[in-house]
Design goal:
Elements (H helix, E strand, L loop, with lengths): L6 H24 L3 H6 L6 H12 L2 H4 L2 H8 L2 H28 L4 H44 L3 H49 L2 H8 L13 H17 L1 H8 L4 H32 L8 H5 L5 H39 L5 H23 L5 H15 L1 H9 L6 H17 L12 H20 L11
Pfam families: SSF
Protein name: Na /proline symporter
Keywords: Cell membrane, Ion transport, Membrane, Sodium, Sodium transport, Symport, Transmembrane, Transmembrane helix, Transport
Length: 469
């Protein structure tokens, strides 16, 4: 079966995008300070926190990469098992949420800099900006897929339009606009997925029809992947979510501790649903469209559904992609304005200047992300590369700060951080994946071991930091 573009779906998507831009315009008027822009003035309730956490995490990486691509290319069971990484991460973040909120810092580099000094802060902000620009780049491509299906427009031209939409939403109201559009999008996505699954399975010929038309290996535990290949795909999302600045900022943005806790629980439940339903649809898509780019798997099925069902699902997928792109773009710009400019270049910069600098950087980094996205052959590839760089360099030192702060030394943290970053970037590209191992299998574990080992060896010569509790 070939994918046929359907302009009717575009009208539904366009209507939903108009609603999102309307919320962005409202948030523009509500956003007056840098704190409003970065953490929504710490005013978010439980429902909005749950929605913004779910929508930010389940963006293009879910509906066009990650579980979607794996279900289409490798098999159903490994795609569903991929979701366990997110669930473990959410559980850890819920346990750490009280400490994160008490830390009273707006960004991850500020948290790391508190313990590892200016060196740690600079390294972390550069790594985060690099990784997040990569993540933003494939959100742009995800919109290109949507517009290709709805209008027949080339993916490249659709990506250009997606770039403009994401930049506009992020620049208008910061986290205030992103959080509320996230909440709406998350609800719509869950409803759309629940409604769409039975329709997609019917169109694909039911379970027996689907399993007859997909490769036999797609029903194995790890599909056509080896265990190490599966682990190399499973580990990066876990490493990212454990230290993802977007998640930390949303936890900080909660108005109350109880509301934040309730929002985290709802996020966990929503993630279970999403990470099960998306693979089911993408798996059915393999039987319906055997020659697709894997990133198109879920989106392509919307053209076979009743218009109202396909429209809801496509609008929700589009919203997830756009709000995730806006979130990561905003977060990267926050690092450059708050941590780099105010932290080192101009510590006395007035709040208004930081506020407007962040908006300008949204446009600049957004354009850079578009260019970067043109150099990766698949969404899954850039997704794993970005996740690995972040997870190897940021997650080990950040978790060390929260879990054994009194035993961590500056030189230990920096040694593990730098080693993880260098290995993540060079292992596959420069060294050519020695022994056939993926970068994530090597970089993050070595970084963790070095943090513990070097901290132990240097602790006797290091006096406790006066900032430690």
């Amino acid at each position: 079966m070939a994918v046929q573009s359907d302009m009717t779906l575009l009208y539904i998507v366009a209507g939903y995008l108009a609603v999102m831009l309307g919320v962005g315009a409202w948030a523009y008027g509500e956003t007056e300070t840098a704190e409003d822009f970065m953490v929504a003035g710490r005013s978010l309730g439980a429902v909005v926190i749950a929605g913004t956490l779910l929508a930010t995490w389940m963006g293009s990486g879910t509906v066009t990469g990650g579980a979607n691509s794996i279900a289409y290319d490798n098999g159903l069971i490994p795609a569903i098992l991929m979701g366990t990484a997110s669930l473990i991460g959410i559980g850890v973040l819920k346990a750490l949420a009280p400490r994160i909120r008490r830390f009273d810092k707006l960004t991850v580099p500020e948290m790391i800099g508190e313990e590892l000094g200016d060196e740690g802060r600079i390294i972390s902000l550069l790594v985060i900006a690099f990784a997040y620009v990569g993540i933003v780049s494939y959100q742009f491509i995800g919109i290109g897929f949507v517009l290709n299906v709805t209008t027949g427009l080339s993916v490249t031209h659709g990506t250009l339009l997606g770039t403009a939409l994401i930049i506009a939403l992020a620049a208008m109201g910061g986290l205030m606009s992103v959080a509320y559009t996230d909440a709406i999008s998350a609800f719509l996505m869950l409803v759309g997925l629940v409604i769409a699954v039975p329709f997609v399975f019917f169109e694909a010929g039911g379970w027996s029809g689907i399993t007859a038309d997909v490769p036999a290996t797609h029903l194995d535990t790890f599909g056509n992947l080896s265990f190490l290949e599966f682990f190399a795909l499973w580990a990066p999302p876990l490493l990212l979510i454990l230290a993802d600045q977007n998640m930390y900022q949303r936890i900080i943005a909660g108005e109350t501790d109880d509301g934040t806790n309730a929002g985290l629980i709802a996020w966990f439940v929503g993630a279970i649903a999403t990470m099960t339903l998306v693979p089911l649809i993408a798996f059915a898509s393999r039987a319906m469209f055997p020659e697709l780019d894997p990133g198109m798997a879920l989106i392509a099925t919307t053209t076979t559904l009743p218009t109202w069902v396909g429209g809801i699902l496509l609008a929700a997928a589009t919203a997830f992609i756009i709000t995730t792109g806006s979130s990561y773009l905003l977060s990267a710009c926050t690092n450059l304005s708050q941590d780099l400019y105010k932290g080192f270049v101009n510590p006395d910069a007035p709040d208004e200047r930081i506020f407007w600098l962040t908006r300008i950087l949204v446009v600049v980094l957004g354009l850079f992300a578009f260019v970067l996205g043109q150099y990766f052959p698949t969404i899954l590839e850039v997704q794993m590369y970005s996740y690995t760089a972040y997870g190897a360099a940021i997650t080990p030192p950040l978790l060390s700060i929260f879990l054994f702060r009194d035993r961590l030394t500056k030189i230990g943290g920096l040694t593990g951080m730098v080693t993880g970053a260098v290995l993540a970037v060079s292992w596959d590209t420069v060294l050519g994946s020695p022994y056939g191992l993926d970068a994530v299998i090597v970089a993050a574990p070595i970084g963790c071991v070095l943090i513990v080992l070097v901290s132990y060896l240097t602790s006797a010569r290091s006096s406790p930091s006066p900032t430690r509790a």
